[in-house]
């Protein structure tokens, strides 16, 4: 039995197979409409995350399975002092696979150690969010036709954004990747990401301050939200949050196939005017994210052989 | 693609067809048990409304479909600053149709403007609640055999009650309707309802203070809750809330076929002793409401041709 | 139509039949995979109880049915002043059977009196929790092969624990049962349990203070949580909570077939080291609880004749 805690739990080959499978699920939904008949997904969400939860649930429903679970810590047994380890053992009596979201880093790992069913980390604090990365990769591969030889700009809060660190870790495994890291000095990628991920892989990167300077060179622009809750004080937040807003003007500097991604939810870091631009790909990410979660659950449930 | 924001989005003929369809669904549930196989309803409830939500969900389940969504703003992405427009675009990646409840007037309309899937307004603040009106009409038509030539009493909070305004708007389109509006002076129907709805339609109405004076003349008595949260101060609430309580004594003044409706939940405006009276129709409304929502979703999903 | 409010609503013969049915459901899941197609369970949970709710929901999903409902009072119509009686009448328009959890003793009984569908008490305050007792009995019968001629130790908070009182009431109906009641003096079984349950049945029992003294004599050890919220003050809680912790050392005093049960959630009253002991049966209880709920709903829905 296998759990997914980090995007790196999957090899490049496994990721490729997942993307192939997800593409087949998108193209032939009826083929998979009953592969999970009688199976159950437990969505154990210790903090709310509507989009991620609905994505997992939709993916399981697409395969004919059912859903049990909870949406927030207040409706979980955690309020009665139950440990994550006990909760997953209980859920394992009911369900066949689990997606766990938790505000504390490492909680899904604790669950995986004792779980009788496969556990997928659906986000643990500032740590990992592997299925977001799967959605990102699938979107890039579908729109650009490849995952190698790309110049990828990542913009916004690069210090605290877990999706950023996961994406960098996943992309350095492909050849010809080059990053332009766009952020205020205070929110730069942490040094451990440089020392443990970028440098060992030999992936070139540059750090820039202004989004305008980077845009013309990019194949992909990955925007992130400046999360208010990550800031130490209100002043810093107010000062920095509007630095990196993508609007129609900035989009004019970009090439005709520079796709814009964003893990969502966005607040105001991408102007709604950009939504109509054919290069805006952030809702496509949601679409592909569902199919990647479907492919991942299908694989972890070892349903391939039954087909 | 079509959205339903107000009961008036449907013509009288469309309403009639919906009621015919709902009656067929009630009579022949098996015929519709799989028409939504593989389809999903998103219940996006930014404020709790158990009855309305369960009604939509049951209606979709009756047709073989599935449910995703959230039950309150605290478990939605709204807490992270996501707009209603973005949330519906995300939900549209997962689901095939959406029922949206929101405390702010007009929010479902904002959603409908960008939504890739049909949106049904499941109540927006004090504004509209079209599926409640569909439930009301279906109940009246089933019990009285017609929607024209009726004297309809509406009692309680006529100022703030959105179900009241929606019902009046829908009924003035039928011939021979006459209203008796029963309320304290402070909670009378707003003047715009008179000037924009009742007078243009030429529908006669009278305003009375005492429920006892109206009851003997009525074919239908529509009771409403005096919602505490609508009052400016506690004193006003305490003074007025018990003015308009329907009990066994008052029911003795009514004709043998004067049915009592109420949008629920009730607090104490209808005595529980009235529940046993065969003229009490408020739980029948819940029953018919489910079938009207089922008929509405079936129609908006354009499933008719597949049959 | 029948409701289940207390474990004693079922005769010993009915309990035996339920356990036989549950065992068949566990052994032959496919036989029951569609017996509830088109049916709905309403889980009306006025206070959160993830484990019990997920157990009921899984049981209904195992039979092909669907779920509607709410997870806490804040997302119910109770916040708008709706009575339990009205809520069950509304739910009865949508669903075919109901599991109700409520913080107030007797609330499910109030619901049952007016309900158009079978109501199962899923826990009402400190009062009853019949499906927990069904899970307990099924676990004991499966592991020990019998429900008679057993020495049963019950340890922890015997004063406030509703599962303890329910279990005692159920077990005194079998022959050859003997209890050892292990608790601090302050948390002993209430006198009404002795006078109304144990003594009339002629069931022998002794009360002891130290878990070590009891363990060697036991066939079953039923551990319970010392619920912080039941204590009058923090000092009492702190002083007593660690008195009755089961660990590897104490397990060495027990016989090779002394199974340990616990209604869960546990906090620290059973050391996690005991989890690996083959005599630890508390997660098996969760497993059997699901099948007992499945058997109970199947029976209350009178599906037996359709087979």
From TrEMBL, chains A, B, C:
Q: List the InterPro entries.
A: Asp/Orn_carbamoyltranf_P-bd, Asp/Orn_carbamoylTrfase, Asp/Orn_carbamoylTrfase_sf, Asp_carbamoyltransf, Asp_carbamoyltransf_Asp/Orn-bd
Q: Which Gene3D superfamilies does this entry report, sorted A to Z?
A: Aspartate/ornithine carbamoyltransferase
Which UniProt keyword terms apply here?
Pyrimidine biosynthesis, Transferase
Query: Which residues belong to any copy of the Aspartate/ornithine carbamoyltransferase carbamoyl-P binding domain?
Result: 2-141
> Per the record, what are the reactions this protein catalyses?
carbamoyl phosphate + L-aspartate = N-carbamoyl-L-aspartate + phosphate + H(+)
Q: What is its EC number?
A: 2.1.3.2
- Share an example GO biological-process annotation for this protein: 'de novo' pyrimidine nucleobase biosynthetic process
The protein's name in its UniProt record: Aspartate carbamoyltransferase
- Origin organism of this chain? Bilifractor porci
Gene name of this polypeptide: pyrB
């Amino acid at each position: 039995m296998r759990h997914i805690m980090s995007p790196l739990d999957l090899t490049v080959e496994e990721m490729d197979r997942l993307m192939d499978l997800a593409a087949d699920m998108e193209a032939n939904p009826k083929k998979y409409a009953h592969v999970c008949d009688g199976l159950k997904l437990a969505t154990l969400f210790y903090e709310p995350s509507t989009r991620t939860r609905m994505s997992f649930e939709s993916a399981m429903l697409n395969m004919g399975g059912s859903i049990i679970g909870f949406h927030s810590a207040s409706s979980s047994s955690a309020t009665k002092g139950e440990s994550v380890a006990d909760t997953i053992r209980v859920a394992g009596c009911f369900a066949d696979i689990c997606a766990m979201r938790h505000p504390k880093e490492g909680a899904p790992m604790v669950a995986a150690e004792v779980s009788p069913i496969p556990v997928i980390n659906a986000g643990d604090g500032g740590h990992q969010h592997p299925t977001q990365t799967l959605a990102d990769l699938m979107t890039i591969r579908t729109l650009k036709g490849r995952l190698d030889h790309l110049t990828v700009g990542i913009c916004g809060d690069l210090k605290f954004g877990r999706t950023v660190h996961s994406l960098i870790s996943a992309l350095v495994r492909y050849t010809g990747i080059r990053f332009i890291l766009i952020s205020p000095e205070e929110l730069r990628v942490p040094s451990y990401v440089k020392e443990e991920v970028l440098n060992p892989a030999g992936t070139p990167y540059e750090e820039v301050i202004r989004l305008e300077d980077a845009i013309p060179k990019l194949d992909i622009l990955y925007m992130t939200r400046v999360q208010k809750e990550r800031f130490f004080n209100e002043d810093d937040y107010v000062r920095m949050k509007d630095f990196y807003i993508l609007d129609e003007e900035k989009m004019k500097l970009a090439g005709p196939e520079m796709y814009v991604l964003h893990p969502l939810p966005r607040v105001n870091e991408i102007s709604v005017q950009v939504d109509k631009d054919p290069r805006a790909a952030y809702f496509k990410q949601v679409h592909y994210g569902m199919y990647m979660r479907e492919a991942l659950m299908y694989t972890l449930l070892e349903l391939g052989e039954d087909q």
